[in-house]
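Problem 12. The chain below contains 209 residues. Write out its predicted structure in token notation.
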Amino acid sequence: MRTNDEVVAYVDDLRKEQKMSINDLAKATGLAKSSLSRYFNKSREFPVNKVHLFAKALHTTSEDILGFNIPSNSIDTSGMHYVRIPIIGTIACGEPIMAEQNIEGYTHELFEEEPQKDEIFALRCKGDSMEPLIPDGALVLIHKQPTVEDDEIAAVQVDDDTRATLKKIKHVGQNVILYPINTKYDPIILNKDNPGRILGKAIHVGFDM
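Solution.
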């Protein structure tokens, strides 16, 4: 997933390629021109919860703008690797994430480079805290890794290691802030009094799996 600055630069490039002024883009998205100017000069963070408006205006997808690695049917699949990926259900306390009792099924995905064994897993999104980018029921592929960068979306183990949640990550001092995209939900703060563990980075959102 792209960082905030990379998203802004990509949207600006798309706008210029399509010969749209900021005023044109403001009209197409229904957002104020002053707000768009602040996004482009990076004095305000890009509104991830409004990315679908930019996607529609610029004739692309939210996933493309945010930089999720979603293979397209137009890509030449010769030489690509078809990988069987476990779908993780409930995560038992203290159990390895790939433990048999945690796996509720499998999905398959194409990769240009074959991932290492147990490097990729999938989670079924439950709830609307990450809408509109990740709707309820979406299947999200996770690259297993213990850390992610700010503004990336991660699967995080919380509630005494019994539940995994998908949230946007921000590091603030000794705290890790888990931000939902849907603004009707409050962030979750992880620290020594409320611990959690990053399981991996979201790399693919599937809508029809």
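Discussion. The chain has two domains: 4-66, 81-206. Students who got a different answer should revisit the alignment rule from Section 12.3.
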